[in-house]
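Tokens help. Our protein:
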Amino acid sequence: MTTETSGSREVETVRLVDHLAGELARAGVTHVFGVGGANIEDLYDAVHRRGGVRGVVAKHEFSAVTMADGYARTTRRLGVVAATSGGGAMNLVPGLAEAYASRVPVLALVGQPPTGQEGHGAFQDSSGKAGSFDAREVFAPVSRFCARVEDADSLTELLPRAVAAAQADPRGPAVLLLPKDVQQARIRVPARDAAPAPGGPAPASAQRPDTAAVSAVSDALRGARRVLVVAGEDVAAADARGDLAELARRLGAWVAVTPDAKDVFDNRDPRFAGVAGVMGHANVEDCLRRADLCVLVGTRLPVLARGGLDRALAGTDVVSLGPEPPFVAGTVLGGSLRDALRAVTARLPSHPRPCPPHAGPLPAPVPGPRFPARERTVPHAQAVAAVEAALPQDAHVFVDAGNAGASAVHLLPAPRHGRFVVAVGMGGMGYTFGAGIGAALATGRRTYVLAGDGAFFMHGMEVHTAVEYDAPVTFVIFNNNAHAMCALREEFLQGGVRSDDLFARTDLAAGVAAAFPSLPATGATDAAHLRTALLRSNAHGGPAFVAVACDPREIPPFLPFQSFTEATNDTESKEGSDERGVVHVG
């Protein structure tokens, strides 16, 4: 670094990557997740030399993005991922697509070959020149902002634009493409205090609620005798849990949550109606049919959240609060969710209304396995009950896709003081392994990852990252030796199960224990053994791994499968056949 004086103002001349590392620290970023390589190594060097921001090396770039995603969801700060060019860059795409669909603020810093080699046969060229593809065209559809940093001076404009785009509604990824020579170039910036500024949440949207819409929504709420609130993930992103609870208190409303938002309302509150949609509870539909008004708060109500509810929604007035319009017809109050909630609540009587009686989130009756188990297994309900008994109330929970995930969403109450995250934007298997590590490193809290063996085989070797960084993550693997959701779809939709989705038995706990001798790894033989192993992991400072054998033929509490069994077993029942019908997802 060199320093010069221009008039009364000191100017530093530093490498672009040193300036970039400093700006991340000043923005409150504490971790950069990624995988190294020749065209991003200078940024990692700058992060290492500067200090204040910790570089975390993942095993795969997809998991590096999900680490940044989990970091962002649990801290409400900007998550940052860094990767090299070529295959490393391309591996970012599915993780960025999840963050885009789920509105998670992530900044991706993507190395590129030196500018002088672009269009001249550069290794991993993605400049769009001389027959190479253009990385901007790849990343643009999965980002809110994407730009190539053509020269060092342009970073001072592009970096603030990228950060602002990631954190503005609708939130999502921003991508900066950084050629190697530009990273190494020197940049003149005003000298500043090197100490990082305290980190904080993303700034609130500047858009204020429309006065006429506030009046219309408030009038509808005051005139409704029975109200069902369906709350979504944006309640967590906007830090609006308290505002949601106050709205429900004043309305005496039932409160349901979408599958990706179990933690936005206390699952043990008498008002809690359950989870809406295909992994949810029948009580939500019952409350919706009894309600005069359905209020959507921080959710657009996509298919996973409204599956099985369309007929009831068609007969109920709907209002929506949130920055984006819903997928169902209704009165919309847009803008900042917190501002909208507060504006509407302020117009309601301050004394609480009593909540009408309701059944609560009773577990769905789940049919037993279609065929005898091939080995001794633990039913999902018993396994989830063991998790519930051991789960600390300040823990974070990350639930992966598949049958095990559906059971956890349906059966496991969210911890009172932690996140309960299900990545349903893209529904990619293996998301949780990176996301749980990112959350644990960001917050220092015990984090539970609940996943099936299929997800483990995709990205479970991030266990190595947890071991390397001593992350307090408990990996709970529901091992049914199958892509069981695929196998059940084959049975219900295609006339029989193909053998390719049923695997030979694998002892995951023994394999992980052999690979990582310092990692406590347990193969739980029953629910009591599972609970004991989980309690032991809570007392252990670092990561732990527990696998439990489950039956691949067990039908999870997933409405598309339940509707098939109802249609088959209860053809005389009007509700089972004509009224509810078969719900299709995927």
Residues 194-199, 571-580 have pLDDT under 50 and may be disordered. The chain is about 40% helix and 20% strand.
